[in-house]
Amino acid sequence: MPEDSAGDLYENALCGNLTSSPDGTIAKVNATLLGWLGYTLDEVAGRKRFGDLLTMGARIYYETHLSPLLAMQGEISGVALDLRAKDGSSFPVLVSSLLTRDDGRPGLIRTIVFDGRERRAYEQELLYARQAAERETRRLRHLVADLQRSLLPAVLQTPPGLEAAAHYRMASVDEVGGDFYDLFPLDDDRWGFFLGDVSGKGIDAATVTSLARYTLRAAAVYDPDPAAVLHNLNRVLYQEYRRDARYCTVVFGILTPEPAGFRAVLASGGHPEPLVLRAGGTVARHPTKGRMVGVFPDSVYTNTPLTMRPGDTLVLHTDGLNEARTTRGASDDDRFGLDAVTSFAADRAPASATAVVEAFVGLLDSFDDGLDDDTAVMAIGVPDPGVPPPS
User: Which CATH architecture has domain 153-381?
Assistant: First the structure.
């Protein structure tokens, strides 16, 4: 088998080889590089500088950055540039250069040029794929946001003589959460309200949330008794999802106006107890007990009454608030906790519905990425005629 000569290995190497003087004038160039660019040796050697073979943008970058760097360090490696072929077309390459020294003075510059067309095409494909993925992510996030909004009331209605406010915080823009709330009118000046949390996330959770919301509203019209409403919801969820272990926690209540305020009757299915902020500045958890809804077929729910006078505010929240991590990387022992939620409200009592929800919004902001779960907060208050409304 004939052996390749050193000259043939240089001229027909798989990469381009180029030698230039310190000022960039080309002294020697192999046939591979000449073939890529469409030049003859006589058109290049002694007539052109390396920078003359670059496109305008690449030439500016080379002369302002790479050439000074080569002079200082004596070497540059794997730099992506675009050469300009004789016909004016662009030829992507990867360039590595080594500056030799002669008695400490700059000598010849030896440059190796690798064909970068496949790599450039691959990078373009990656870029297009990333852009497509980003577009798809934006589209999905819009869909998630739209679906989430569809599971909440577009506008929170306010019963005459009361003040109401609510806030929903998504823990992730990529997943639909399962928290829900509503406040709606019934017959005889009564109003129904609820706030709950479905297990899990995503489309499955959204399906359960939608079913729970409409079941609660329909059951309240049929029989406006909170315990009976939760009993109906429990039966519906258990029959529909008992094999998938889909359930929720929820507080449901009925508001009835009284001469000196409002009377509320509440029932709970495994949900955090509501907070009651009194006009005198005290705060307490309203005792509501009951099993999670949809887990057992025979769950029993109990009504508990609550009288609300001017200046009193009822606050309901989901467990995303008390389970928030207080510090980055915190363990389960570093969750905010129900006691801290109660203390936070106590420091702000008495407070209107709007004021207390705004305070909790600020608290949620302070958790930053410590908020692992979606959080819903709803407050219903009886305005105090002696206290001017918030501006």
Answer: 4-Layer Sandwich (3.60)
DSSP element (H, E) containing 209 = helix 202-222
Angstrom distances, CA of residue 230 to CA of 26, 204, 225, 377: 86, 21, 9, 20
Most distant pair of Cα atoms in the chain: their distance = 111
Class of domain 6-115: alpha beta
Q: Which two tokens stand for residue 229?
A: 């409403």
pLDDT tens for the chain, 391 residues long, are: 455 677 788 888 889 999 999 888 999 999 999 999 999 999 999 999 999 999 999 999 999 998 899 888 989 998 999 999 999 999 999 999 999 887 777 789 999 999 988 888 777 888 888 888 777 767 766 766 666 676 678 788 999 999 999 999 887 766 767 789 999 999 889 999 999 998 877 777 788 888 889 999 999 998 999 999 999 999 999 998 877 778 899 999 999 999 889 999 999 999 999 999 999 999 999 999 899 999 999 999 999 999 999 999 999 999 989 988 877 554 556 888 999 999 999 999 999 999 999 999 999 988 887 878 888 999 999 998 766 555 4
Is the pTM higher than 0.90? The answer reads: no
- Give me the residue spans of the domains in the chain: 6-115, 153-381
CA 184: distance to chain centroid? Answer: 31
